[in-house]
Each structure stands twice: as structure tokens, then as C-alpha cells.
Design a protein that fits this description.
Length: 113
């Protein structure tokens, strides 16, 4: 969720800070700092000289993929009659565990007809 949040925030402001992520997600600053460290060590994120968070190409790819899953699932649930809040909440849970095969089938069946 952190990569997706950094990606979304960077769409409106290229200078994303850990405090921005903290405020957006409602998480404590120490929790975000810990996650940032893990993401940096994994090679998904760097911090520039000013302390701004910048996704690496790999981090950006994962964030885009996660965001696409979220939006596709949310839109499917809304089409099924689920409220937008619940659709978004459940999409957020499912986007991280759904297989590539099932997601591709959902996209093809419901959105590429």
C-alpha cells in the first residue's frame, strides 16, 4: 500500500515526503519511516538529497500494477451495486492477494467485452 500511496501522491506533487504518506494513510510517522526503510532496502524506493521519496522503476511498476488492480476491482464492485466506500475498501484488500490469472480473467470478462 505504501508504494501505491507514494505513486498516487506523486501524480499531483512530485515532491512526496514521508510526512505526506503518513497524513494520507493515517499512519504514525515512525510506522512510515520503518516502511520507507524496508522499501529502500528492497530497491523499490530512494530518497533524494532533499529527503523526498522517489520510486525506482521497479517500485513504480509494482505501484502501477497495484493501482490498476485496485481501480479495476473497485469499478467491478460498484457495477455490481456495492457502495463506493465498501468497493474501495474491499478492492484494497483483494488487490494484494489476487492471482495474475484471475485478475486477467476479470479484466477480460468484465471490461474488454
Amino acid at each position: 500500500m505504501y508504494l501505491e500511496t507514494i505513486y498516487l501522491l506523486s501524480q499531483t506533487n512530485p515532491n512526496v515526503r514521508a510526512v505526506d504518506v503518513s497524513e494520507h494513510m493515517g499512519y504514525s510517522k515512525p510506522s512510515v519511516s520503518r516502511a520507507v526503510g524496508i522499501l529502500k532496502n528492497a530497491g523499490y524506493l530512494i530518497t533524494d538529497d532533499s529527503g523526498y521519496l522517489v520510486l525506482t522503476e521497479t517500485g513504480k511498476e509494482i505501484a502501477k500494477k497495484t493501482y490498476e488492480r485496485h481501480e479495476t476491482l473497485k469499478n467491478l464492485f460498484i457495477r455490481m451495486g456495492v457502495s463506493e466506500d465498501i468497493a474501495s475498501e474491499d478492492a484494497c484488500k483483494i488487490e494484494h492477494v489476487i492471482s495474475e490469472e484471475v485478475f486477467a480473467a476479470i479484466k477480460k470478462y468484465f471490461f474488454e467485452m
